[in-house]
Amino acid sequence: MQSDWKIRCVDDVRRSSSDGLATGPFGSSVSAKFFQSTGIPLIRGSNLSEAVGQRLVEDEYVFMPEEKAAEFPRAIAIRGDLVFTCWGTIGQVGLIDKRARFDRYLVSNKQMKLSPDPAKADSLFLYYLFSSPQIRATIKNLGIGSSVPGFNLGQLRSIRFPLPPLSEQSRISRVLGALDDKIEQNQQAVRALERLAQAIFCAWFVDFEPIKAKVAGATSFPSMPQPVFDALSIRLIDSKIGPVPEGWKVGTVSDLATLSKTQIKPQDYPDELFDYFSIPAFDTGKRAFLELGKAIKSNKFVVVEGCVLLSKLNPRIPRIWLPPPPNGKRQITSTEFLVFVPCSSIDRHYLYCQFQQSSFRENLAQGASGTSSSHQRVRPNDLLGKAVIVPPKPIRMEFAHLIDPLFSFASACLLESTKLAEMRDYLLPKLLSGEVTMRDMR
């Protein structure tokens, strides 16, 4: 540790006001009966993550009425505040910063809030500090309880850590933050590319816009090759799933793909590193986790090259994944994902877009079963039997030629993000301990 670094604890860096360190309200005060579609977003455990760089998970908020949230001023979190899980998945930490969707949040009963004093600590530096493997391990070791681990305000206060001068904190957070900013830019690019591919899919195969344009007298259609447009029928005929173009087949998912169920027991290979595709890995940027076999507790599916992964858990949340080609390590996936192998290589991205299509997902959600809304699952055979349109192969081939470059670019962005995340994770503990200084990086 550098000579100008000091050992500090959370109490040393929090704001001196009474709300500088606080827990959320009692559970009954923020129970489901108060939830509504607008208002102050409530940060729950599902909105936090153990993944570095995932500062908030902003997909599934519930909202509290403004007047109800106002009853708990100490539990209001604003930009610059950190949020910790105190019951459940302890070790999760979030940061409300420039990326956050809202200016104000209410912390739930199972979370804690830290408001740093900006004259003493850089919020982003503290976020990386509490995201580091060392501090995470400390939190987990302090956990109380077995079935539902707990971590309380007093324990958070007691954590000690090396703290550099504020100027050095800012320099460190800028370096790590720049890597995360580029990762976020790549993720935005991937989302934009996938939206474009999905828009083309919907135009061609859901709304039949080229056929409607042809009926209206158009002699071509943007994005559709002329020979394909010229060959289109101008008639739509009734089917069990609604009107479809004449000559197109109504089939099932099984006409486009098979389901691979090949399994492996990673613990039989304790020292082998696997690329592990899991739901947490998907939710933190679609980057497979690198895990030793001995750390993976149960059987997993083998990822088949060129497959499409579809999560059977909670189909209302779309988790569809295109695993990249293997990079020398075996690829495995959680059994919460189904491994679909396209019958033809040209259909991989068609299948992906079909799974992403909103009416298809809604249909899946309606057929799911489970004990609660958060643990609904689709039965694999039901999914294989779902009715879908199967256009003639030449049309699917032209669609593939059109959108394959979009997915290739998206794949390159994801690969770059993986390398950036590896660099960040390598630098993070070294910068936070003082082993590597900013002078060393000049």
Summed up:
The chain has 442 residues and is an alpha+beta fold. The protein has 13 helices and 23 strands.
Structural description of this entry:
The chain has 442 residues and is an alpha+beta fold. Among the domains are: 6-163, DNA methylase specificity domains (Adenine-n6-DNA-methyltransferase TaqI, Chain A, domain 2, Alpha-Beta Complex); 253-390, Adenine-n6-DNA-methyltransferase TaqI, Chain A, domain 2 (Alpha-Beta Complex). Helices cover 35% and strands 18% of the residues. The protein contains 13 helices and 23 strands. The chain has helices spanning 10-13, 66-69, 123-131, 133-142, 153-158, 166-205, 209-215, 226-231, 279-283, 348-356, 358-367, 380-384, 393-433; strands at residues 6-9, 21-23, 40-43, 62-64, 76-78, 82-85, 93-95, 104-107, 111-114, 160-163, 236-237, 244-245, 249-252, 257-260, 263-264, 273-277, 289-292, 300-302, 308-311, 320-321, 331-333, 337-342, 387-390. Strands 15-18-21-16-17 form a five-stranded mixed sheet. A four-stranded antiparallel sheet has the order 2-9-6-7, with helices on one face. The chain has a four-stranded mixed sheet with strand order 4-3-8-5. The longest helix has 41 residues, at 393-433. 33% of the residues are buried. It comes from Desulfocurvibacter africanus subsp. africanus str. Walvis Bay. It holds the Pfam family Methylase_S.
